[in-house]
Amino acid sequence: MLSLLIPICLSSLFDSDMDAVLRTEHSPFLGMYDVPAEYAPTPAAGRVAEREEEELKKGIAELYDESSEMWERLWGDHMHHGFYERDASVSLSDHRLAQVRMVEEALAFAGITDDPLKKPKRIVDVGCGIGGSSRYLAKKYGAKCEGITLSPVQVKRAQALAIAEGLEDRASFQVADALKQPFPDGQFDLVWSMESGEHMPDKTKFVGELARVAAPGATIIIVTWCHRDLSPSEESLQPNELNLLNKICNAYYLPAWCSASDYVKIAQSLSLEDIKTADWSENVAPFWPAVIRSALTWQGFTSLLRCGWKTIKGALAMPLMIEGYNKKLIKFAIIACRKPM
Ligand code: SAH
């Protein structure tokens, strides 16, 4: 029965118009900063964009409300790719270690030090999931970490895990929008976004908010899915590439993608310093095949069925991520920079 259902679901998923809202190709630069007057949206267009953004946020919240428990059961509390040696073969237990290694590699790349005088003391985890990074960083640095997510279910679980680990005074969580963060300016000496940037409909506003809440001299780390950089002769991706990304957007509640160099340009436009970026696509290559294998176990399969349609749709789209990486269209990128003193 299910073998029949899956192809039917797949075709309806990829031909459907139901999430057309998520396919809008608005520029990552269309934000509240530096928008020339002639490109500023009319009030009516502004309202449509607002409604689309609200629908996107609702979809993201529901997707993570629905799927987080299953993810935690199969994969633990880090809801992000693992970092692997290139061309390494890995056993299943290594994947969780690889996810922790991702956190360590990101910190090392950004030059975050263990020096007691310089280590971060106040951290914000933007798009915190169930708080895997928040608790790890709070413990590692003895820091205070505040996590925000759109998913109320994730907040509840993140709080429960913090209490279970005796970290309730150092790791706190709330439902809040990364594009309108509930924090005053200049609060945090480490601003951390692990695989949430791809959900942000306005990349300029996103990086602008990360910079706003960063204290002078603070480090900002963004680890995120990007599309490949365009060549100098290209104005956009090829139609077949856009088509593949649109299918992935439909499944994972993602707006239009941007490249790592787009992030660099945004960081430069905000006068951020020491901007560095790297392509870690090859270091994450074993991850999606492993996620697919875990979904194909009996436990994975029954958990998926219990979760609901949004999660099943996400699972069915996993091979598309592999296709995107194989075609060198999808890039797994890190961007690190510093707010000027
Ligand atoms: N960083 C976490 C979770 C990654 S999953 C980890 O590595 O484990 C993506 C997360 O981004 C989810 O928690 C989702 O709710 C959050 N997110 C997406 N869009 C957001 C937004 N606009 N504001 C706040 N959080 C957002």
Explain what you see.
The chain is built from twelve helices and seven strands. Strands 3-2-1-4-5-7-6 form a seven-stranded mixed β-sheet, sandwiched between helices. Helix 6 links the parallel strand 4 and strand 5. It is α/β, with parallel strands linked by helices. Helix content is 47%, strand content 16%. The chain is globular. It has one domain: Vaccinia Virus protein VP39 (Rossmann fold, 3-Layer(aba) Sandwich). Helix 2 runs antiparallel to helix 10 and helix 7 runs antiparallel to helix 12. Bound molecules: S-adenosyl-L-homocysteine (SAH).
Task: Present the secondary structure layout.
Layout: H1 2-15, H2 43-75, H3 92-109, E1 122-126, H4 132-141, E2 144-149, H5 152-164, E3 171-175, E4 188-194, H6 203-213, E5 214-227, H7 239-252, H8 260-269, E6 273-279, H9 287-295, H10 298-307, H11 309-316, H12 318-326, E7 330-338
Parallel strand pairs: 1-2, 1-4, 2-3, 4-5
Antiparallel strand pairs: 5-7, 6-7
The chain binds S-adenosyl-L-homocysteine.
The site of S-adenosyl-L-homocysteine has 24 residues, from helix 2, helix 4 and strand 2.
Organism: Phoenix dactylifera (Date palm)
GO biological process, one term: methylation
Protein name: Probable tocopherol O-methyltransferase, chloroplastic isoform X2
* Residue share in β-strands: 15-25%
Large-scale geometry: globular
Give the ordered list of helices and strands: HHHEHEHEEHEHHEHHHHE
In CATH, what is the class? Alpha Beta
Task: Just name the CATH architecture.
Answer: 3-Layer(aba) Sandwich
The helix content, as a percent range, equals 40-55%
The count of DSSP E runs of length 2 or more, i.e. the number of strands, is: 7
Q: How many domain units? A: 1
CATH topology: Rossmann fold
Treating each run of at least 4 consecutive H or I residues as one helix, how many helices? Answer: 12
Low-confidence stretches: 1-41
For the largest beta-sheet, the strand count, sense and barrel status come to:
7 strands, mixed
Structural class based on helices, strands and sheet pairing = alpha/beta
Quaternary structure classification: single chain
Mean pLDDT: 85
Bound molecules: S-adenosyl-L-homocysteine
Q: Which strand order do you get reading across the main beta sheet?
A: 3-2-1-4-5-7-6
Radius of gyration: 19 Å
What is the CA–CA distance across the termini? 62 Å
Question: CATH homologous superfamily - what is it?
Answer: Vaccinia Virus protein VP39
GO molecular function: S-adenosylmethionine-dependent methyltransferase activity
Keywords: Methyltransferase, S-adenosyl-L-methionine, Transferase
Region (SAM motif I): 123-132
Family: Belongs to the class I-like SAM-binding methyltransferase superfamily. gTMT family.
